[in-house]
Structure formats: C-alpha cells, structure tokens
Amino acid sequence: MPIAVCLLGCEHPHVSDVLGVIASEPDVRLAAVWSGDRAAVPGAISNYLVDSPDTAIARADVAVVCAPAAERPQLCVRAGRAGRPVLVETPLAARAAEAQAVAREIARSRTPAYPVLFLRQVPALGRLRAVLRADLLGRAAAVDASYLTSAALAGAPAAERDDPGRGGPGGLTELGIQLVDALTALGSRPRLEAVSVDRRTRGRADVGGVALGRWTDAPLSLRVSQIVRPPGLEVVVNGTAGTAVLRDGALELTGNHGAPERWVGAPPDPAEAVRAFLQRLRARRLELNGLRHALAAHEVLERAAVV
After folding, report:
1. pLDDT tens profile 263-295
2. Does the global pTM surpass 0.90?
3. How many separate domains does the chain show?
4. Residue 64 forms part of a structural domain
5. Same domain? 51 vs 143
C-alpha cells in the first residue's frame, strides 16, 4: 500500500520540495491538505484541501508539518496523539522551552517525529566528517560557517517574518538551527558565546545574524541570512596541516604539500530530508527521540542570544 501523506500548512517555502518528493516516489501519495491560510495552498493540490487538520490526519499514514511556527506545536501534538509519524519544519516552536514541551508530549504518545534538517544530508558534509575523523587537517585552528538564502527577498515565509505574534522566531533561529546541526554532524556541537541579529525593521523578526563561539577547541564564526543572493552553504575548517572548504556540494582540501583535491556532490536540498524520512518509514527504523538534534541546536542559539 502507498504511504499516504497529509500536508499540514502550506506557508513554508519547502512545500514545493515536499510535493516534488511525493509526486516522484511511486509508493507515496498525497492524502489531504490543511492550511490556516487557504490562499497559500498551491492550485495543483487544491482538490485535496480539507476543513480541519484532524480530518487531514485521519486520512493519512504520516503528517508533514509546513505551517508557521505558532501553529506547529498543536499540529504536531494532534498528529502524534493520532499515532501518525511526523516530519516537521524547524524550529518546532518559537521558543526552545516550548519546543521541548511539544517534543515531550509527542514522545508521550509513542509516535516518532523528525525535523527537516537537510544540511546534514549534504554528501560533502559526510566527506568532510571523514576527513576530520582521519585527522587529515591536523588540529582545527579556526572554523567559519555560513548559510545564506534569499527567502525573505522572495517574500516567504511572510507570515512569520512580518508578524512575530504568529510565532515567527526569525531567520537567525530558522537558519541557525540548520547550520548548528550541520556543524554538530561533523563531530561536535558548537558553543556560541555572542550573537548579533540583523533586524531590518523595528518590531519585526530578524532576517539572520552572526554568532561567535567555539567548535571543539577552535574559534568559530557563524553567519546566516534570509536576504542574500546568490544563496549558499559554506564551511571552512582551517587546521594545522591543511584547510577544507565546503561550498554547497563541493569539498576542496588543501594540504601543506601537493595540489588541492576537489570532490563535487549534490548541493543542499530540503527534499533530501523528506526522502530520508520516507526511507525510515519503509525500513521501519523509526526513533522516538528523532527531534533531539533540532532541539539541541535551538537551545544553543537561544542560550547565546540571552548571554
């Protein structure tokens, strides 16, 4: 039987990625769509629109939550209580404490849930992790990481960016969770000590920012933004024996001797997190603590912001 998916919320820019995966996988089908903003529902799936999230959940095997941050907690809890595995955009809630409470409620229902952490799916990141484990760069001396998008320039997700009352945590949290998690996947969770946000207009959520801290024992600088073209991911690790530069899907290694080595793979793609989630379903390898990485990254950012 095909995996029936309900889409809860259509305001997130990753909705097109979710729908693309559903359309391309032969054993997956769209069962229902619910959105608090009916105008955000793409015309191609308007026939799947239902009046309540509970109706959508009842028609599906799994739930994908792309609603604004203020709506994600109650939608995830509803799906969890109904026993539907959940894939949810990050952050799980506007504040880290609320996200932890939601995760506990989902865990109480014994329902697996996972965040859309797609940077850790980038193949070049796995290559860089192997390089670091093999100690090919020597001791890390400095790390610079950035993840830049043009989401705010495209006007999405406007509901969160322009109305913090709806629970929009801002670009620093939304993109920062992805970047902090990517660094964690390299082998160590970063420690942030100072944060400066980029707030375009007083009273609105930020569109990104910079942070300073440490990764392992090396100084770390981190930057995220929703208003940069062209977008891109970059991680630079300077070591005592060489330097690694990860740029989108490419990894370049430069040592003390010899020509640089370059490997090119697929760039960051939110659809890969959806595919990974579906593969876990097929393999029946679902965990009850699947949200832990997103929760930890959210706490790292929020703790630094109040120092």
Report:
1. 999 999 999 999 999 999 999 999 889 999 999
2. yes
3. 2
4. yes
5. no
